[in-house]
Amino acid sequence: MARILVIHGPNLNLLGRRERDIYGSDTLAEINHALTEVARRHSVELEFFQSNHEGAIIDKIQAAMESARGILINPGGFTHYSIAIRDALSAVALPTVEVHLSNIHAREDFRGHTVIASVCIGQVGGFGKQSYVLGLMGLVSHLEQNGRTA
Predict the structure, then answer these.
(1) Known binder of ligand: residue 80?
(2) What's the pLDDT tens digit per position in 64-85?
(3) Is 102 annotated as a binding residue?
């Protein structure tokens, strides 16, 4: 069974309580539950990780090289400037999908720039919790098409 690493970046542990007008009312646990249901239907296993620390995220990405077939990542604020996370994703060379709850391109100008997207197979944003679900479905489809789900 293929394993996909799901990474939630900084401040996402506060979902459901912070800026509901932007990020919605779903908690991180509710997002993870929705992803688990999709994964079950597609016979993939998920590993969830949340950190507010750039180095911890990089360590987890590097460890995924040995344990995962793909990565679903919401890098949060690191999206806009973390060359180190970008380089870790590039180094492990696992198919990666970047997701965002909000439409980063419709917000403040600085949020429209992502250093992560260039090393990802796709990006989904603006659909709240559904962004994660759509991103996971796209990643699973990519893995299936490339024979990487077994």
Answers:
(1) yes
(2) 999 999 999 999 999 998 999 9
(3) yes
